[in-house]
From TrEMBL, chains A, B:
Keywords: DNA-binding, Transcription, Transcription regulation. InterPro entries: cNMP-bd_dom_sf (IPR018490), Env_Response_Regulators (IPR050397), HTH_CRP (IPR012318), RmlC-like_jellyroll (IPR014710), WH-like_DNA-bd_sf (IPR036388), WH_DNA-bd_sf (IPR036390). The keyword Transcription regulation applies. Signal peptide: none annotated. Residues 145-211 form the HTH crp-type domain. Pfam families: HTH_Crp_2. It comes from the Bacteria. This is Crp/Fnr family transcriptional regulator.
Amino acid sequence: MELKEFFPFWKTLTPDQQARMTASARAYTAKKGEVLHRGQADCLGLVCVQSGVLRAYTISDEGREITLYRLYQRDVCLFSASCAMRAVDFDIFIEADQESLLWIIPPEVYRQLMEQSAPAANFTNELMAGHFSDVMWLLDQVLNKKLDARLAAFLLEAADRENSDSLSLTHEAVAGELGSAREVISRMMKYLQSEGMVAVSRGCVQLVDRAALEQLAGDSLR
Amino acid sequence: MELKEFFPFWKTLTPDQQARMTASARAYTAKKGEVLHRGQADCLGLVCVQSGVLRAYTISDEGREITLYRLYQRDVCLFSASCAMRAVDFDIFIEADQESLLWIIPPEVYRQLMEQSAPAANFTNELMAGHFSDVMWLLDQVLNKKLDARLAAFLLEAADRENSDSLSLTHEAVAGELGSAREVISRMMKYLQSEGMVAVSRGCVQLVDRAALEQLAGDSLR
C-alpha cells in the first residue's frame, strides 16, 4: 500500500509536506510477537499497517495484559507516536500479532505536519476518538462484565445442543436469545473473534478456542 | 472569566474567527444536579467552566453510573460537542455537581473553527488526550485496584472537595462513582466502619481515622 492511501487528507498537503512525509517514512517488517512500542518510554512514530495485525494493550501492576484494540490493514496507529502529542499520559504497548508490513513515520515529522495542517490535526483527532470509543466500550464491558460471559455461555450451550462447534446463527437471533441488540452482539462477536475464541462468517459462528470460552463463561456461572 | 482565556490559541485566530466565537458563545448558569448532556442524542456544544464543577459519566445498560472525570474552573468540556467530531462512538453524560457558570459554544461554530485552524484542532486533540488519559486511569483502577483502596481514596477526595470530614453520601451514589453495586459498597463501608476508619449513618459518612484511610488509599494513589 502506498503511504498516501493511509491519509485521506493527502491532497490537501503542499508538495513540500508530501515530500517530507514520503522521504521520512520507512518500510518495516515486524515479526510475529515483536513488541514495537513499550509505553511512554518509547516513541517509535506513526505506524501505518500495510498488512498484518497489531495489538494495542496495557499491562497492570501485576503484569496482566489487557487488549485495548487491534489494528488491521489500512489502520494507523497513533499512540506509538504519543510523544508527538501533548496530554497523553498513559502507557500503551504495541505488539505484532502476525508478521506485519508497516510504514513508520518519525514522530517529529508527524508533529510538525499536525502543527501546519488542520486536516492532519483533525484526522489525528478522529483516530484518537476511534481508539477512545474502543476503550470506552471495553470499560463498559469490564464494569458490567456480563454480556461477554453470557454470550460465551450461550455459544457453548448451543454447541452442546447441536453437537457441533459450527453453529448456524445470525447475530439477530443471538440478540433475541440474550435480550440484547443486534449491533451489540455483532460488536461482542467481533471482540471474541479478535481474541481468537470464535470465527465469524455470514450466518455462521465457529467455536475456535473452547477452553477460553469456558473460562470466560465461568464468570457468569459463578 | 473571559471566553478567550479558555483557548490558549486565541491569538492565532483571525479577527473574524474571534468575532464568530465571541458572538456565538452564550453564558449559562447550570443548577446543581442539572444534566446538561445525555449521550449522543444531545449535542449541546463546547462547554467552558467559568466556575463550579461538572461531572462526566456513563450509564451502563442496567442504569449504573460511573464517573469518568470532573471538570473544574478553566476546563473545557469536549464531549458535550461530540457531534462536532467524527468517530466518537460512545455516550457520555454531563451533570452539574454544583451550580456552575458556563460559556457554551454551538457545535457547528466549533467544528468550523477546527476545520480552519490547526491550532484549534490540536487543542481539541489535547483535550481529548487528557480525557483519554483519565479513562485509561479509571480502567486501570477498575481492573487492578482493590475496592477498599478505591473507596478510601474516593472518601478522602470527596472530603477535600467538600472541605469537610462529614459527607452527605448515599451508598447508591458511591456505588455509581466507583462503578460498583450498592450492596458491595454497603458491605465495604461496614468493613471500614468496623476498622474504625469511618462512622456511617443514614445518608452520611463521617471520616474518623484519616491516617488509616490514607494508608489504605495509598495503594490506589501511589
